[in-house]
Amino acid sequence: MVARIEGEVAIRTPAEENRQQKRLLDEEPDLAGIKTLCSNHWELPFTPVELRKLAEVGDRDQGSKGSAEYRAHELSRRLGAKKLSEIVRRANSGESARSLAQELGVANSALTRMLREEGVSVRKSKVTAEDEQALARAYDAGNTIAELEKSFKLSHGAVLRALHRTGVEMRAKAPRRKS
Predict the structure, then answer these.
(1) Reported confidence tier of residue 162, pLDDT bands at 50, 70, 90
(2) Backbone conformation region of residue 140, classed left if phi is above 0, alpha if psi is from -120 to 50, else beta
């Protein structure tokens, strides 16, 4: 490891470096010692006082305002009122949260949480007995799991569970292609 010492370069062994870092952690638990704790000893563009100021919460020009309250990046706020009401209407009419999330380009869990906060009853769509039998027939006819997912608009897990409930004997997995 190489360390700067007042413009000169000194070589330290890793054991010496570890001792130095432990000593600095014991003596200087504040951010001023971070420059010497960095594994790359480049010159940082700010002084220890500026480092402390960066670590403070609040407006840096007006001084510290104490601890800031954590606020999640609310999806409803990002979407806006008009889009939110349209999504809620579509979810209430029976459109799946998964398809809505895919369309919006957001995580399914984030959209589901937002819909529940808006009072929408979000539930898993259940595969009916007729659909289970149709899945089993299509799988026995040679369709792959991926094809069944697309044609029935179900998740991978829902297709597998439905096939297992019907007692279908699963085919062997195809070998993975080498990239």
Answers:
(1) very high
(2) alpha
